[in-house]
Specification:
- It is a single chain.
- The protein is mainly alpha-helical and 778 residues long.
Length: 778
């Protein structure tokens, strides 16, 4: 199984033309229409050294980079720095690159399409931030190679000087193929160094320049002293046209292996990743008693049959590993418990998983500490031990990944387990957690689809309690996606079902969700009624989840008061500070961060300089909890606070940070502020693009909910920005848009914020006078 991309650390061998082409930029996209793994096989044959196979994320990327920093003390110090959750990502990258100064490192990510959204952008905003930082800097020797089947055009278009593409389906060109093949026979023992050029060209033609196939030619010759290059070419020419030459060479090589060598190779194919000789010994103990694998592995390494990763060994998955697996009967589930274990894939996957079970760390502090768990989960799934794999996923998700905001590390496995668990209740459990992971990644459409499937399954199972929770969760995701009316329907279904099941906490959650839906569409008095209903439902409940909901109610009610105008700001701040105290008492950092962000938004109205501190605290908590919603909203609030306080450069920096989280409806405000700061700094191209993004997102959100006054106000602002940048005729549309917003609500707080943003765009711009009147009075 491929995780969400794969990391391959490479030490570059000089003198290879292809590698020089690859390393010309910082980011290179290798385009291949072949099956997964093909690119990695070819690159590893060209002198790259595989050093790690892990789930991809910004934390893991930096942590793995830290492992190749020279000096044990420097590595330890950097590791402590990276593990400080209060430090921003940019600071962690700075320190890592400082420690790698003078080193040349290549990061290869295979199957990189899994990191991209449908528009070809990096899906994880923090990973996107890290990539962009690497692309924009010239003070480091870190190169990125992303192997993918289709070109991510936005990244290529936005980084023309530091990113490029290279099509690799056609293999190495003639001179490079010949040079590579001859370099394998450095001592000239097997006739490659002195072979006639026509023979070398014939090898290139037959292998199509595929580096792994060229390497296998050498391996076959070295393994058969009686075989000459012309004889092998004669064999290869007789291979039927419909048979893959790579598969033929792999088969010829493996069919002539010593039986013990073959068994060692099969063990590596079972593991499917770099492992130490001790792991091979553990797996083969029931089958080859008394044998030590390390001498065999080193001999196979010398023949280029296996690869080395430091002191660990592995083989390419395709076609080598798959051919070896095909030579082992798959077996039956009962093989897992038979003693001694039979020679079947299922029994061997079980043994391999047990090896990694013995390698688990007792103290888990960072995601790399879970590497043995990841390996064990992968092996359990490959051995069709699906329920045990799900149990392991649940254990690390609940114990660590959810708190770290890293649930997407196990999401691909959850996807793979769908429909394979043999128990509908387990399927329901898996769907709900997978939806949570997609929501964290802000893939809200996928989260909604998963939750809809989960609701249907809960209905089929007549699982009333889970149905209530899922309806409320579906309402939350719909609300985040800007589908307020549909969200309200889901919350109402959740409320009705909660009352039937006598689930008071879930009933209160449904009231809280309905309160937000009413407030979002300007029905503030009705929202306060929902708040009263929620508090009544919570009466008598004092568990942690109930206390957390009380904090959320204080947060949401404080926000509603802030919409009513300046005279209600004291009430808003009192509620928010009460919620902050309770959040700190319960050590609920994310809720504390959300409250700090709302506190900053209230303070901007009249005291913008005072808003900077809580907004900055919220930004830090967003980074620490890896919560994209808080990170985006807090940076947006920080940008507006700085802007209103007269700090244009700081506002621009915060707006740019907020706009990186572009996948949610709440990115609309970030785009608008990015447009304002760029316009004020005279960068009309950047401003035009930001206002355009804001307007496009507003159009999408208006199609989902017509009565969202915040969307209308921000769309009016975006249209004004576009008018000032390029097309004055858009001012009439801006007027109509603001009038539509005021038809929904004209509460003083709402109007004040709309006018504040217009003033920051063009306080003394006479052309905006009619727009200001519409924003104020409708």
């Amino acid at each position: 199984m491929f995780l969400v991309g794969k990391l391959v650390w490479a030490l570059v061998q000089p003198g290879n033309l292809l590698l020089m082409c690859l390393l010309a930029g910082i980011l290179v996209f290798l385009l291949s229409r072949g099956r997964r793994g093909k690119v990695i096989i070819g690159l590893s044959a060209l002198g790259f050294l595989l050093l790690a196979v892990t789930p991809i994320g910004p934390a893991m990327l930096l942590e793995e980079l830290s492992k190749i920093v020279p000096g044990e003390g420097a590595r330890a110090a950097l590791g402590e720095h990276l593990n400080n959750s209060m430090l921003p990502l940019a600071g962690k990258l700075d320190r890592t690159l400082e420690q790698l100064a003078g080193s040349r490192v290549v990061v290869i990510i295979d199957s990189a399409e899994e990191l991209l959204d449908k528009g070809g952008r990096i899906r994880d905003p923090e990973l996107d931030e890290l990539f962009r930082a690497l692309l924009s800097r010239r003070d480091h020797g870190v190169k990125l190679i992303l192997a993918t089947r289709s070109a991510p055009e936005p990244l290529l278009r936005e980084n023309p000087l530091s990113a490029g593409r290279l099509q690799v389906d056609n293999g190495l060109p003639g001179p490079e193929a010949m040079r590579f093949l001859q370099s394998l026979d450095g001592e000239g023992v097997y006739g490659l160094e002195s072979a006639p050029e026509e023979h070398l060209e014939e090898v290139r033609r037959l292998t199509d320049g595929n580096p792994r196939a060229l390497e296998l030619v050498f391996s076959v010759l070295k393994g058969d002293p009686e075989l000459s290059l012309p004889q092998l070419l004669d064999e290869m020419n007789r291979v039927p046209e419909d048979e893959d030459i790579l598969g033929y060479l792999v088969g010829r090589l493996f069919d002539r292996l010593d039986p013990i060598d073959l068994r060692v190779m099969q063990a590596l194919s079972i593991y499917g990743r770099p492992v130490p000789p001790a792991a091979v010994d553990y797996l083969l103990r029931p089958y080859l008693r008394g044998y030590e694998s390390e001498p065999i592995l080193r001999r196979l390494l010398d023949r280029r049959v296996v690869r080395q990763d430091g002191s660990w060994f592995y083989i390419p998955h395709s076609p080598d590993g798959q051919r070896l697996l095909d030579g082992i009967p798959f077996g039956q589930p009962a093989d897992r418990d038979r003693k001694p274990p039979p020679l079947t894939q299922i029994a061997m996957f079980q043994l391999a998983a047990e090896y990694f079970e013995t390698r688990r760390k007792q103290r888990i502090e960072r995601i790399s500490d879970l590497s043995p768990w990841f390996a064990e989960i992968d092996l359990r799934i490959r051995g069709q031990d699906y329920r045990r794999a799900l149990t392991l996923i649940y254990t690390i998700d609940e114990g660590h990944l959810i708190d770290w905001g890293q649930s997407n590390a196990v999401a691909p496995w959850r996807e793979e387990l769908r429909g394979k668990l043999g128990d509908q209740r387990l399927e329901l459990h898996n769907l709900s957690y997978l939806a949570h992971a997609r929501r964290l990644r802000e893939d809200l459409n996928e989260a909604m689809a998963l939750l809809t499937d989960a609701v249907k399954l809960a209905e089929q199972l007549e699982d009333g309690e889970n149905l209530v929770r899922l309806q409320n969760e579906l309402g939350s995701v719909l609300f985040e996606n800007g589908e307020v009316t549909r969200a309200a329907r889901a919350y109402k279904r959740g409320r009705k079902a909660a009352r039937k099941q006598r689930m008071k906490l879930e009933e209160a959650k449904a009231h809280d969700g309905l309160m937000l839906c009413d407030a979002e569409t300007g029905k503030f008095q009705q929202a306060f009624d929902r708040h009263r209903d929620a508090r009544e439902a919570l009466n008598g409940l004092h568990d942690k989840d109930s206390e957390n909901l009380r904090i959320e109610l204080l947060l949401n009610t404080g926000w509603i008061y802030s919409q009513l105008g300046h005279k209600h700001n004291v009430d808003a701040l009192d509620l928010l500070r009460e919620g902050k105290t309770l959040a700190r008492k319960l050590r609920e950092e994310l809720l504390e961060g959300l409250i700090l962000n709302s506190e900053a938004q209230v303070l901007i109205d009249g005291h913008p300089a005072q808003a900077i501190e809580p907004a900055t605290e919220a930004v830090l908590i967003g980074a620490k909890t890896r919560n994209p919603n808080l990170s985006r909203d807090a940076n947006t609030s920080l940008a507006l606070a700085h802007l209103c306080a007269g700090n244009l450069n700081a506002a621009s920096e915060a707006a740019d940070a907020a706009a990186k989280y572009r996948h949610s409806r709440r990115a609309l405000g970030a785009f608008a502020l990015q447009g304002i700061t760029a316009y004020r700094k005279g960068d009309l191209d950047k401003a035009r693009l930001a206002f355009h993004d804001a307007h496009l997102q507003a159009d999408t959100l208006r199609s989902r909910e017509r009565r969202n006054y915040q969307v209308l106000d921000l769309d009016g602002l975006a249209l004004c920005g576009l008018a000032l940048c390029e097309d004055r005729t858009l001012l009439d549309r801006a007027v109509r848009t603001y009038r539509a917003a005021r038809a929904i609500t004209h509460e003083p707080g709402v109007v004040g914020r709309a006018l504040c943003l217009l003033d920051e765009l063009g306080r003394d711009t006479e052309e905006l006078s009619s727009v200001r009147r519409a924003a104020a009075d409708g």
